[in-house]
Design goal:
Elements: E1 27-30, E2 37-38, H1 43-51, H2 56-59, E3 65-69, E4 78-81, E5 84-88, E6 90-91, E7 95-98, H3 101-114, E8 118-121, E9 124-128, H4 131-154, H5 165-187
Parallel strand pairs: 1-3, 3-5
Antiparallel strand pairs: 2-6, 4-5, 7-9, 8-9
Helix pairs in contact: 4-5
Length: 190
């Protein structure tokens, strides 16, 4: 919103019926997250973010849509399908309680770098995101991770499946996140 008016691009648009139909450019869509969830990343954030990716022209080949979606099940940050990558809406309160210690340990350096406090609780680890740090995490890690799966699929001979799996997508997200870190915070200074 700007001056109390909502940008036309941020209205909840239905996802295209066939996300696998080839498009000239990658489109960004937003689905309504529902009453208990919220999109911390907006369409305009995604559009600005992909502009700072150094290999976007190559990476976007075969990518028909980026979707801001409700999660298909609780605890999902993002997902990919042929021709589609998605960032999932999160609970309205940006503070997460994560019970999986491996998840926290695997991403601790990124949380520290973003300034996300981590507290141990009886239920797991409390991640104290702000709106800005959650947006940064979703763009610099979740979206890049899902783009890593897309890149994996597009670099296989058949272009039908992401054969190198989660380790490849994690490495892709981390290496590309490091490459654009400073440019991201120039673009999104908060």
């Amino acid at each position: 919103m700007k001056s109390g008016r909502q940008y036309a691009a941020e209205h909840s648009l239905p996802a295209p019926r066939d996300l696998n139909s080839p498009r000239d450019t990658t489109r960004v869509f937003r689905k309504n997250p529902g009453p208990t969830l919220r999109h911390f990343v907006q369409v305009r954030h995604v559009r600005a973010f992909v502009e700072i990716l150094p290999d976007w022209t190559t990476l976007s080949a075969g990518l028909n849509a980026i979707l801001l979606a409700p999660p298909p099940r609780p605890g999902v940050d993002g997902f990919h399908r042929p021709g589609l990558v998605a960032i999932c809406a999160q609970p309205r309160n940006p503070h997460w309680v994560v019970t999986d210690e491996r998840y926290v340990d695997a991403h601790r350096d990124l949380f520290d770098r973003l300034g996300v406090p981590i507290e141990s609780t009886p239920d797991g680890h409390a991640l104290r995101f702000t709106e800005q740090t959650l947006r940064a995490y979703q763009l610099l890690h979740v979206l890049l991770h899902e783009l890593g799966h897309h890149h994996d699929r597009m670099t296989t001979r058949s272009k039908r499946e992401a054969s190198r799996g989660e380790p490849f997508a994690e490495l892709y997200a981390r290496s590309h996140g490091d490459r654009i870190w400073a440019r991201y915070f120039d673009l999104f200074p908060d």
